[in-house]
């Protein structure tokens, strides 16, 4: 099972620190439902290194259609 994380584009009070929180919350939810991988689709190029620091792979193609970053759980 795949879980796809959606990143809000609008600013948050936490700023960029909200992204690791979203990643953690998505990973916990994925673990609860038994997902084996977590994807961020169409990641912002400026955030690619931030996601890689959180355990996501570099950009890859998701099902031959979209660009994404994957984290194996």
What structural class do you assign from the helix and strand content? Answer: alpha+beta
Approximate helicity band: 25-40%
Count of individual helical segments: 2
Please write the string of helix (H) and strand (E) elements.
Answer: EHEHEE
- Beta-strand segment tally: 4
Query: How far apart are the first and last residues' alpha carbons, in Å?
Result: 11 Å
How would you write the strand order of the largest sheet? Answer: 1-2-4-3
Q: Averaging pLDDT over every residue, what do you get?
A: 76
Major sheet characteristics: 4 strands, mixed
The low-pLDDT segments are none
Q: Work out the strand percent.
A: 25-35%
Shape: globular
Computed over alpha carbons, the radius of gyration is 12 Å
Quickly count the domains.
1
General description of the model:
With 73 residues, the protein is an alpha+beta fold. It has one domain (2-72). The protein is 30% helix and 26% strand. The protein is built from 2 helices and 4 strands. The chain has helices at residues 18-33, 48-53; strands spanning 2-5, 37-41, 60-62, 66-72. The radius of gyration is 12 Å and the shape is globular. It starts with a strand and ends with a strand.
Secondary-structure blueprint of this entry?
Blueprint: E1 2-5, H1 18-33, E2 37-41, H2 48-53, E3 60-62, E4 66-72
Parallel strand pairs: 1-2
Antiparallel strand pairs: 2-4, 3-4
Summarize the structure.
With 73 residues, this protein is α+β, with helices and mostly antiparallel strands.
